UniProtKB/TrEMBL annotation:
InterPro entries: AAA+_ATPase, ABC_SmlMolc_Importer, ABC_transporter-like_ATP-bd, ABC_transporter-like_CS, ABC_transpr_FbpC, Mo/tungstate-bd_C_term_dom, P-loop_NTPase, Transp-assoc_OB_typ2. It comes from Inhella crocodyli. This is ABC transporter ATP-binding protein. Residues 3-241 form the ABC transporter domain. One of its GO terms (molecular function) is ATP binding. The keyword Aminoacyl-tRNA synthetase does not apply. The lineage of its organism: Bacteria, Pseudomonadati, Pseudomonadota, Betaproteobacteria, Burkholderiales.
Length: 363
């Protein structure tokens, strides 16, 4: 693993009191991989990134980069940020306004001879597609171009690890999408190992080989994006990633193995579920995401449209079944039904995910 965290915790001191921002975080990121940390505001993403960079001391745990110990709270070890060979791109990606694009990119290359420095700068500008703009000043660039200069500047010293904290947050949505694709290609072309922070799920999935979901200072899941979506480790992850609802269900043994009785019919492909005796009486809740609920005129179950949101290619319908169960469904937008109309729906779930029902007090 290029980056390895073991049981990392971080406290801030506020008016003499320790405020816990990160606790018990362990994960590894392989060389050349892109990891993305995602989670709601205040869950500790930026704090964790700052701890990896060495800008905050660890209050517990250990941290290695390229096999080298960078921090160990118990041993009192804390390597200074500038010795960690870690590059950083932050939200405001502040370029030096009085320096040209070329000089900005050359900033971290003072140790190189002039010729090597110039070569590396040109190489980086080519990588980010700005070779024609080397002489410009930052204010003569668009936001997206400035962001690419910031990236070239961070990549130029060939850091072992690049940390990026919401690098696209100040850009508009179209540009964000375009740049995140571009950035992934650039990082892969350069073989850079990178760890991002975002709270945009689409960005996390588009960029990350690995996605980590944080909640209240903890890393609750660290997996491939596909697994985070289809096999969420906790209710929180299931709820945070994608549109979906938890629906009461009954897990039972059917003729072909475990099956799940739901208000939308029986789900037979439940082999990845726990066995029925995992839940008292087999009673559980199943995650039904918007893409698991299919509109089908011939389906025996009818649902009334309570709300609809147009999302271009599809509508997101919020539906209520006759028994009161609420589900959501992503339906191709040529099926334009009215609020109040009843439509046929069925469940088509590739990966059945169940959780124990919440205790009554928590509902
Ligand atoms: N310098 C600080 N001093 C005290 N508490 C802090 C400090 N920085 C952050 N915190 C607290 O630590 C917790 C984690 O904050 P952090 O900025 O890491 O979250 P985040 O997930 O990056 O949030 P966002 O997505 O809003 O940027 C929050 O409760 C925050 O109020």
């Amino acid at each position: 693993m290029l980056l390895a965290l073991e049981d990392v915790g971080l406290h801030y001191r506020q008016r003499g009191q320790a405020v816990e921002a990160v606790r018990g975080v362990s994960f590894g990121l392989a060389r050349g991989d892109i990891g993305v940390l995602i989670g709601p505001s205040g869950c500790g993403k930026t704090s964790l990134l700052r701890a990896i960079a060495g800008l905050e001391p660890l209050s517990s745990g250990r941290l290695r980069v390229g096999g080298e110990r960078m921090a160990d709270a118990e041993a009192g070890l804390h390597r200074a940020p500038e010795t960690r060979r870690i590059g950083m791109v932050f939200q405001d990606f502040a370029l030096f306004p009085h320096l040209s694009v070329r000089a900005n990119v050359a900033f971290g290359l003072a140790k190189l001879a002039d010729k090597e420095q110039a070569e590396r700068v040109e190489q980086m500008l080519r990588l980010v597609g700005l070779e024609a703009l080397g002489k410009r000043m930052p204010h003569q660039l668009s936001g997206g171009q400035q962001q690419r200069v910031a990236l070239a500047r961070a990549l130029a010293p060939a850091p072992d690890l690049l940390l990026l904290d919401e690098p696209f947050s100040s850009l508009d949505v179209d540009l964000r999408e375009e740049l995140s694709q571009e950035l992934r290609a650039i990082l892969k072309a350069d073989g850079t190992t990178a760890l991002f922070v975002t709270h945009d799920q689409a960005e996390a999935f588009a960029l990350g080989d690995r996605v980590g979901v944080m909640h209240q200072g903890r890393l609750v899941q660290w997996d491939e994006a596909y697994t985070v979506y289809h096999r969420p480790a906790t209710r929180f992850v299931a709820d945070f990633i994608g549109h979906g609802v938890f629906t009461p269900a009954q897990l039972e043994m059917g003729p072909d193995g475990p099956q799940l009785r739901t208000p939308l019919g029986v789900l037979r492909d439940a082999t990845e579920c726990p066995l029925p005796d995992a839940y008292p009486g087999g009673r559980c809740e199943v995650l039904l995401r918007a893409d698991d609920v299919v509109h089908d005129d011939h389906a025996p179950v009818q649902a009334r449209i309570e709300r609809k949101v147009f999302r271009g290619a599809e509508f997101l319908y919020t539906l209520r079944l006759a028994d009161g169960t609420q589900v959501v469904a992503a339906v191709p937008s040529h099926h334009d039904h009215h609020v109040g109309e009843w439509i046929g729906v069925r469940a088509q779930v590739d990966h059945v995910v169940t959780f124990a029902p919440l205790p009554p007090a928590a509902v």
